[in-house]
Design a protein that fits this description.
The protein is an all-alpha fold and 85 residues long. It is built from 3 helices and no strands.
Length: 85
């Protein structure tokens, strides 16, 4: 999270992204990957107090918007960006 009166530099963004990625997951290892096939919410997650928030919002249409979104996610970092069309 950035707390600043001005926009962070690319270097500041990279430092924050690297720090976030280095921290790993913030939930138990047993829960990693369980949401891959959702919905429905797997019992282990429901019993652990997780809730399902399944929302979709259109952020663009067409190939140009798709490419801009893909490029943004790739710059964002923290792993592989897998986009299904």
């Amino acid at each position: 999270m950035f707390l600043s009166l001005s926009r962070p530099t690319r270097h500041d963004e990279q430092v924050a992204t690297d720090a976030g990625c280095a921290g790993g997951f913030n939930y138990p290892a047993a829960h990693v990957g369980l949401s891959r096939g959702m919905p429905p919410l797997p019992p282990l997650l429901a019993d652990s107090g997780y809730a399902l928030d399944h929302a979709r919002h259109r952020v663009g249409t067409g190939p140009a918007d798709f490419e801009r979104a893909r490029a943004l996610l790739e710059r964002w970092g923290c792993g592989c960006v897998c986009v299904a069309v």
